[in-house]
Write a structure and sequence with these properties.
By secondary structure, this protein is α/β, with parallel strands linked by helices. It contains 15 helices and 5 strands. About 65% of the residues lie in helices and about 5% in strands.
Length: about 350
Amino acid sequence: MDTKPSDLIPLNSLSERMALADKLRHLKPAIAESVTTEFFQRHPDWVARYGERGRNLGIEDACFHLDFLAGALEAGSVTPFEDYVHWTARMLGARNIAAHFVAENLEQIESALASHLTAPEAEYVTRFTVAGRLACSGPPEEDRAEAGKRGLELVCSLFLQAILENQRKAAVTVILEALRDGHLATDIYVEVLQESLYQVGRLWESNRITVAEEHMATAITQYVMAQLYPRLPPATQTRGSMVITGVAGELHQVGANMVADVLDAQGYDVRFLGTNTPHSGIVQAIEEHEADVLGVSATMLFNIPHVVELIEEVRSRLGERSPRMVLGGAAFRSLPSLTAELGAIGYASDLRAAVRMLC
């Protein structure tokens, strides 16, 4: 088969596609081990070049291939798998590993899976692996400019797949590669991490994923942020000190954490207090940190009274030493007049808005 298959939805039902994807996940450890062993036998020079560490990385890469293949099978679309393979070939190419080795690995996986699948399942998998092999060479010449524009769209797509498939290592790899490719940290936070979580929220709202899956995706994103933060470029100037927090009763902290990370990289000395923080502790942190700015996050509308109480307590205790205040979070979107009423300098609707306002 030498033509690119069109994007498709069969097998006949979602339950059949899910069953096939689960079968791949169950087979993944054995298949990854066997195809990597065979690959190193085919290419004995790789043993000398990369040794046992290279073999372990080969198994890890094969597991990634199978994870992303399973996710695309479940969705019934070859496009996410093509995107993943094209990104993988480009990433490995930067490490002097030619794209044809990726294509060979996919062919091995297809062959190794065949004996474990029914004929219709094997045929379905083949359509995906063929699309993946074709994607190794990249988009046609006339599509390259458009593909370049899609840079972080592709990263976002891959990251979203990873966090929904519980692929923590893959999620980290995707983000660190984006940073190595020269994408700005703020763009990665906004266009990949923030956008992916928005999409996770929409999937949950439409009942396409469970609460557990939504929590898993959020937890993986926080783990990725912890890996990304130490690699952020150092600030070129000092802007002042800042405390960022969620009020008492607030349980959402990822957005505020992103703001804290990026503003720290922009030159603020940030103390991030997390969420559901007692107001007395927030005031104490402002005093100890001599904060110039207080960022207050609230996601749920019913937490607005706590925001009002916190701001009143800060001003009551600190008087003229009270910091400037910035509000953030979904709770304020439907209350445009509240910012002025509370005397805050502004409402940051998202991470980029916070950077514009304070930097």
